[in-house]
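Lab notes, practical 5.
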Amino acid sequence: MAQLIGMLLLGFLAITAVAVVRGRNLVAVVMLFSIYSLVSAALFMLLDAPDVAFTEAAVGAGISTILMLAALALTGREEKPPARNLLALLLVGVTGAALAYGITDLPPFGAADNPANVHVVPRYLGESAQEIGVPNVVSAVLASYRGYDTLGETVVIFTAGLGVLLLIGRWRRGPPSPPRNGDGQ
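Output from the prediction step:
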């Protein structure tokens, strides 16, 4: 059942990506980007990566959408007709083919004999309580083994939130009001 849901989510991601590329109304494109991020977050949850899902939902669907809508408030709503660049299309095609070729060398998804399941998971489950002193394995992994990664995600979310607050605060203040009397006080 999880594989069917995963395939449906991947299909919806592909449809949304095509709609983003084909769209000319930039507000609609921003909303489609937000939908893409939310579906990506759902896919990450399905893949048992709640920390990545939360970051994608907060940064991708939340803060990025606000920033893009703020940028659209300062620009136009319609995209100019794009220039066709065959070199760029060729470069994207070669990169996509290289990535597709690289996928063939990966171990099967979820297989019990994958290196992560054979080496990393048993060590985390068996030795994390003694090494770190935290009985909860998830907390031990997020706070210690992947501490820099978690810190980086937290910094990204904090920085994005701070940027949005600064942008919104600047708009609310408006232009400075002129002095009330002629002597500048």
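Observations recorded by the TA: DSSP finds seven helices and no strands in the chain. The mean pLDDT is 83.
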